[in-house]
Structures are given as C-alpha cells and as structure tokens.
C-alpha cells in the first residue's frame, strides 16, 4: 500500500470528481484511477462507486478515507519533524484565520513574523471558523486563529488577547451623543448582522439577547466592510470588533463608533493547533508574536 494512492483516494473523496482530483494531485486521470483500483485490489473491497454523473464512496470507502486522512496527517508530521530538525524556522506554516479578524490583525503582525523568520513560508487561509476546524481535522492546516470557545478537546488553545466590541452607527443616531454605550441602550434597537457561518454573528446575537435588541431580518451582510457601508448609508447600527475600527482602516464618512462602558462585551482570540502536531514548539513561538500585539490597538476609541 503506497502513500500516493491514499492521497489520491482522499483527494477524490474531497472533490468527488476524477478529473479534478487528478488535477489537484498533478497526475493524469488514468494514473489516478489506476492507483485507486490497485488500492481496491490490495484491500479486496470496493472503495468508490463510479457512475457517469457522480463519484460516491462506498460505506467501507468512507471509513478507509477517514483512516487515510490520519495517515496523511502523520506523514506530513514526519516531514515537518525532519524539516524542523534541519532548520526550525524554515519550511511552510499553513495558518487559518477567520474573515472578521484577518484584514485587521495581519497587517500589524505579519511584518514582525517576516523579520523574525525570514526563511519561513507563511501560507494564509481566510476561512470561516467551521471550515478552519475542518481543515485542522483533515491536516490541511497547521494552526488557526479563532475566537473562543473552541469545543474540541483534540486541539491546543493558546489564548492571545481579548478584543472589545464597539457600536457603529450613523452620525445622527440618537446614541451618537453618548460617550459610552450601556447594554440597556440597545434595547429594542435593530442591529445589522453578518450572514450565518460567521462567528461574529453568533457573538453579536449573544449581545442582542443580553441587551434586548434584535437583528434586522431582511438584511444579512457577507463581510465586515458591507456592514460598515450599510451603517454609513443609514440602514442601521451594528457591532464591530475594535481592530476593525483602528488604523490602517480609514475612517468612513457618516459612521461613528462608541465604546461600551466597562466591562463591555468582548471576544477572546486564540491560536489553536492539534495536540498531535509536530510543530508545537514553533506554533508557540508564532503565538507569542500574535499575543504581543500593541495594547493600544486593542483599546476601543473614546
């Protein structure tokens, strides 16, 4: 049984298409098909149901694929151990980060990582929380930056910092005259929120529940920047994390932000990785850089 055949099978399971799987594995379709058939012959079971329109795994095929993912993850860990033994700060680090954090945190941290580890190749994946957790499970990410809590005891969770939320509103909104926002100020307010799948949406819904506010049901934004522009267009108010309203983000016309009176709602950001990861020591070094972000950036604007 060879590792390459297992890789072909796992890739086929991910994309459910022979041509696409072959393209991702940089081989011809006949080569990929032949290797998978040889794997079936060696195991003496059918792994794949082949039809003109779709590719499906047999029940035993699904089980073999899950085992295969573990094998490929371990093989990758072996390569990482060997690479780090030669040069601990070289090679590739695959890091996932969710969209409502990535564009606001990375500009402050990536230059520091580049200076400290000039031989490191950092591959960044901007994905929703659920997808990052899935990629960590499949071994296609080395680590992720996520908002706590993370309900997975197979992961190490290294807390980095807390980030307060602020209220973003049009300049003429009734709350714009206040220096600080109390939770009860939001009672009966209609908040603009992100679409399903964004952890910021879940966090904002918790604040809505605590404050007696509710979401604007006829609008769900796909990004933080859409939320920002909709607030500026007098469509409603919203919650934003502090980093999203700090430089280098440019001010938005007809949009003001107000902090909550302490202790206000906030989110805890952590760097997570598999407990079995061969990169534990190096991940801790990277985490220390993220946690050393300038504390002034995390202070809500007054």
What is the share of helical residues?
40-55%
Determine Rg (CA atoms, Å): 23 Å
CATH hierarchy: architecture of the largest domain:
3-Layer(aba) Sandwich
Order of helices and strands: HHHEEHEHEHEEEHEHEEEH
- Please give the count of helices: 9
Low-confidence runs (pLDDT<50, min 5 residues)?
none
Percent of residues in β-strands:
15-25%
Number of domains: 2
Kindly, what is the distance between the CA atoms of the first and last residues, rounded to a whole number of angstroms?
Answer: 63 Å
Helix-strand category? alpha/beta
CATH class of the largest domain: Alpha Beta
CATH topology of the largest domain: D-Maltodextrin-Binding Protein, domain 2
Description:
This protein is 40% helix and 23% strand. It is built from nine helices and eleven strands. The strands form three sheets. Strands 3, 4, 5, 6, 9, 10 and 11 form a seven-stranded mixed sheet that branches. The protein has a two-stranded antiparallel sheet with strand order 1-2. 32% of the residues are buried. The chain has helices spanning 3-15, 18-24, 29-43, 59-86, 102-116, 129-138, 199-211, 224-232, 280-291, and strands at 48-50, 55-57, 91-97, 120-126, 143-147, 155-169, 190-194, 214-221, 238-241, 256-259, 266-274. It has two domains: 3-82, Arc Repressor Mutant, subunit A (Orthogonal Bundle); 89-302, D-Maltodextrin-Binding Protein, domain 2 (3-Layer(aba) Sandwich), CATH 3.40.190.290. The protein has 302 residues and is α/β, with parallel strands linked by helices. α1 crosses α3.
């Amino acid at each position: 049984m060879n590792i390459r055949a297992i890789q072909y099978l796992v890739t086929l399971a991910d994309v459910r298409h022979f041509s696409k799987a072959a393209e991702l594995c940089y081989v011809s379709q006949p080569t990929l098909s032949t290797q998978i058939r040889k794997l079936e012959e060696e195991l003496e079971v059918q792994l794949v149901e082949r039809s003109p329109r779709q590719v499906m795994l047999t029940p035993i095929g699904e089980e073999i694929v899950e085992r295969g993912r573990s094998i490929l993850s371990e093989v990758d860990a072996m390569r990482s151990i060997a690479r780090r033994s030669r040069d601990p700060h070289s090679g590739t680090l695959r890091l996932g980060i969710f969209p409502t954090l990535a564009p606001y945190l990375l500009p402050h941290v990536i230059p520091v990582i580049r200076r400290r580890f000039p031989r490191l190749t950092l591959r960044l994946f901007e994905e929703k929380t659920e997808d990052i957790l899935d990629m960590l499970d499949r071994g296609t990410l080395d680590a992720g930056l996520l908002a706590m809590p993370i309900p997975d005891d197979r992961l190490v969770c290294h807390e980095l910092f807390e980030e307060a939320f602020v209220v973003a509103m049009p300049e003429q909104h009734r709350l714009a005259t206040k220096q600080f926002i109390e939770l009860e100020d939001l009672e009966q307010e209609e908040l603009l929120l992100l679409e399903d799948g964004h952890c910021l949406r879940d966090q904002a819904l918790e604040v809505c529940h605590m404050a007696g506010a509710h979401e604007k049901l006829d609008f769900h934004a796909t990004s933080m920047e859409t939320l920002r522009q909709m607030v500026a267009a007098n469509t409603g108010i919203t919650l934003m994390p502090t980093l999203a309203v700090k430089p280098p983000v440019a001010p938005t016309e007809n949009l003001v932000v107000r902090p909550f009176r302490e202790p206000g709602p906030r989110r805890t950001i952590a760097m997570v990785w598999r407990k079995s990861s061969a990169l534990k020591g190096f991940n801790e070094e990277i985490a220390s850089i993220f946690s050393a972000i300038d504390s002034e950036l995390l202070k809500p604007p007054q």
